[in-house]
Amino acid sequence: MDKTALITGATSGIGKATAFLFAEHGINIIICGRRKERLKEIQKALNEKVKVHILSFDIRDKHAVHNAINTLPEDFSKIDILINNAGNAHGLDSVEQGNIEDWDAMLDINVKGLLYISKAIIPKMIANKSGHIINIGSTAGKEVYPNGNVYCASKHAVDALNQGMRIDLNKYGIKVGAINPGLVETEFSEVRFKGDKEKANTVYKGFTPLKPEDIADIIHFAVTRPYHVNIADLVVMPTAQASSTIVNKEL
Ligand code: NDP
Ligand code: 8X3
């Protein structure tokens, strides 16, 4: 039977790679993000393979999220899989120097945005008596690193929400699990360093980081397990990485 997945943050990085891989495997997709042109390009590239619907909203805007989900066309109204992926780090500053706008952005997008979209979709999953939610956490949700303070807090919140959702939605047979990546080369560091590409590139220099396709592959693995198998919480790092601060620059 045809499945439909809604992927937040599909205009770039992990979300975009997941959209391409899902389409390759015949999963219809609802792709979300603010950059509409990018969504249109992805739709154009994939709509001969599967049904593709685009939703452009800022995930911080709870009304926009609610309206987008509750006005989906009939073909896309049954969402089998939700990939809660939209998110970013903003800044890398010691807490006493932290920028309050950066803190707001991380908490509003990574935590509250994830809640808004989940709140809009969960009732549909309950009504359908099925559903699978994958929360994209981070190694930053498992340990705290210097200057990571609020980003790490936002991802620890995702870790807590992943556990909380799994507990609360268990009675409906809805699967909930998290994939927690380490260093993945995407636009993540460019966003963190506010467009400074040179600074962003240094994060991934001297070792082989994960590619967004590596995480997409694992997400696809998670959503294609038999019904009785739930990948509840998975951490994945590049081989060169041992922790948030230990990276072997010879690998
Ligand atoms: P990218 O910057 O490449 O992608 C981020 C995505 O999030 C974009 O599609 C962006 O879309 C979307 N997004 C950001 N802000 C908003 C917003 N306000 N409203 C709607 N969508 C938004 O980064 P990644 O692919 O690396 O990040 C994806 C997820 O993976 C994030 O949750 C991140 O924290 C997590 N992660 C990343 C790691 C890494 O090393 N790269 C490691 C661990 C976890 P648009 O700008 O078009 O709105
Ligand atoms: C992204 C990984 O280590 O840059 O969540 O915070 S890290």
From TrEMBL:
The keyword Oxidoreductase applies. InterPro entries: NAD(P)-bd_dom_sf (IPR036291), Sc_DH/Rdtase_CS (IPR020904), SDR_fam (IPR002347). GO terms for molecular function: oxidoreductase activity, acting on the CH-OH group of donors, NAD or NADP as acceptor. It holds the Pfam family adh_short. Keywords: Oxidoreductase. It comes from the Bacteria. Belongs to the short-chain dehydrogenases/reductases (SDR) family. This is NADP-dependent 3-hydroxy acid dehydrogenase YdfG. It comes from Maribacter vaceletii.
